[in-house]
Description:
Layout: H1 3-26, H2 40-43, H3 71-78, E1 88-92, E2 96-101, E3 107-116, E4 126-128, E5 145-148, E6 151-152, E7 161-163, E8 167-168, E9 176-183, E10 189-196, E11 202-210, E12 220-225, H4 236-240, E13 244-249, E14 252-256, E15 265-267, E16 272-278, E17 282-288, E18 295-306, E19 312-325, E20 330-341, H5 344-350, H6 366-383, H7 386-400, H8 402-417, H9 419-428, H10 433-447, H11 456-460, H12 462-474, H13 498-514, H14 523-535, H15 540-571
Parallel strand pairs: 1-8
Antiparallel strand pairs: 1-2, 2-3, 3-4, 5-6, 5-12, 7-9, 9-10, 10-11, 11-20, 12-19, 13-14, 13-16, 15-18, 16-17, 17-20, 18-19
Helix pairs in contact: 6-7, 6-12, 7-15, 8-15, 9-10, 13-14, 13-15
Amino acid sequence: MDKKTVIGFILILAILFLMPYWQKIFSPPAEESAPGEQTSEQQTQQTGQLETPDETPTQTQTPDFRPEAAEIDDFTALQAPPAEAEKLITIETEDVIVVLSSHGGLIKSLQLKNYFVENGQNGNSQVELITPPDLNPWPAMGALTLGVEDEILPINSMPFEVTGFDISLAKGDDPHIVTFIYTNQSGASVRKDYTIKPEGFDIKLRLSIENPAAFGFDKELTLGWMVPHLPTEKDYGKDLDKFGGFYYSGETFYDLDEVDEKIPIDRSPGGTKWAANRSKYFTNVIMTEGENSKYAFIAGLKSSLYDQEGKKQDWEQYSVGLTFDVGNGSFENDFLIYSGPLDYYRLGDIGYNLDKLVDMGWKYFRPFAIGILWVFKQLSSVLFNYGLVIIVFSIIMKIVFWPLTRKSSTSMMKMKELQPKMQEIKAKFKDEPQKMNAETMKLYKEYGVNPFGSCLPLLVQMPIFWAMFSVLNNSIELRAAEFMFWITDLSQKDPYYVLVIIMAAAMFFQQKMTITDPKQKMMVYIMPVVFGFLFMNWPSGLVLYWAMFSIIGIVEQILVKNRMAKEKEAIA
């Protein structure tokens, strides 16, 4: 392996190490919008805890997002219990448990039946997409509030008449409809019709308002999901890093995934189809099925909480909504509410670029990630274990790259055989560098050797590698996916680094077989160590893939070596 090849490997390592940062640099930023005002209440960083040490607070306090301090009195007044007792309607389907409240006709709770909190909070509890009421004043009311941007209006706590009942829906049942109606003394009314199917994570909502001004909607109305996400994953930091607000407007996907203290509020351009907030694996989407909204409203707030180890983590909270113009007569629109996993194919079936909520990595590698996810899903339908899927995928990739690998391996072995001739050239033209290089290249051409052949297979598969990184890190299919023994989650690092050791050992033997220049033998020891450190905290599924790739590479080297030996025997 000559100096240029070593430089090539160094560049590959730079790509491996720096790509996550490059993604952030080159990802298209969200368009700037008019800044909103931020009160001292918003600027105060609050803390919370989930299984924290004794010195941490015993209750998480999350500030609301309202920009005007004058609204606090109105909000306090709303906390008084309505005259009528709250009636809760529970609908259980194959996938969710939804609790609706007669106070405001809001969603009070939304649990995902088949997804569980992985960070030890509340044991093995199901994922809840409505933050517990004691953490924030808005969750005390619920989701799908009616307001003017993030202003909470009295209608959200008023007692609605309810038509509907508790029910458990099974596959094949008809959708269940629950209707909430509130009518004031002057005859103005608000009506919410929820339609919940026996399967899936989407809920239909028809909102009808007669005389909106009577409820405080003089010019605008915002249907909002003002409830922030809580982390659900073992690694709080990686989960919280994915939190953000998103919207689709004018055929363009926008994201706001970093709260700027100077711009806590973002208003989208006109013609907005949907708005959503997101954690690493779950999302809440409000989508209009009728007239597009005037703009999407997204409010972001910096806060903090403590993870299960007592470490303080930054917590960026996002509330979202769709804002519409309203007149003095009436308002009516249909909505689709999706609250569930960030499933690329489910969201893609809905359309309107919702599948872009799933982080598939840098845009240039995204097509590869989508292709890999498709292959994974096809293989998983047969193998039923994503560890086996990754192993089989490694074999498939080796078969795909075999022609290139064979050519590269042959070239490297010929390089090894040419070492004596190369040493003669160096000795003969040691005082004539240009002549030495010309003769060396002539030798390479004569024997069909590519001096960069050892780097080429690795460079070609870099898009596959980084696409794999994104799929294993962000796909709901790989969340908490078990392999065997100690590997209980392929999206998390190997807790005992056994796979890392196996991978490094395989790389050591592969490098030992491929190094051709005696002066570069230190690479045999350096490369496995460097890669080992790089992979220590990466998903164990990615380490499994690279380990298998290296092990199969050893077998390939042996096959190429035996083939060349047979060819020499045939010539002799």
